[in-house]
Write a structure and sequence with these properties.
CATH architecture: 2-Layer Sandwich
CATH class: Alpha Beta
Helix content: 25-40%
Order of helices and strands: HEEEHHEHE
Number of domains: 1
Strand order of the largest sheet: 3-2-1-4-5
Largest sheet: 5 strands, mixed
Number of helices: 4
Strand content: 25-35%
Shape: globular
Number of strands: 5
């Protein structure tokens, strides 16, 4: 086990660990940091909160700014370690995350949070689903 991974494990025992949900679509990027149970919101930010124009909401720059904003709030509230869960629209939408997912994770690390694990939680149909609308 690496030294950094062991450090994250020790910090997780002390209770200053959270979950960072990153919803990255091609229209916006939403960063939501919760406690381990997921029931209490600690920080939340989106690309629309930091971008002046609508065309900038899904951009990597807006995702980095939103992640830095959420990370600063989480650090102030005592969260040091996060488990990152990346989600794309899924279903009948795109199965790959938008352009802001990678830069958002990078911004979390640069802001001072320790990223313990990164997981993809995109909802994928096991068979298929019908597209909305008529013929």
């Amino acid at each position: 086990m690496s030294e950094r991974s062991g450090e994250a494990h020790e910090k997780a025992k002390r209770g200053d660990v959270g979950i960072c949900w990153i919803y990255a679509s091609y229209n916006n990027t939403i960063i939501h940091i919760t406690d381990l149970s997921g029931s209490e919101t600690i920080a939340m930010a989106s690309g629309g909160q930091v971008a002046k124009a609508d065309r900038d909401k899904p951009s990597p720059w807006a995702a980095m700014q939103a992640a830095a904003k959420a990370a600063k709030i989480a650090l102030d509230k005592g969260i040091r370690v996060v488990h990152v869960k990346v989600k794309a629209p899924g279903g009948y939408g795109p199965k790959t995350p938008g352009p802001g997912a990678g830069p958002a994770i990078r911004a979390l690390v640069r802001a001072g949070l320790i990223v313990d694990r990164i997981e993809d939680v995109t909802p994928l149909p096991t068979d298929t689903i019908r597209k909305p609308g008529g013929r």
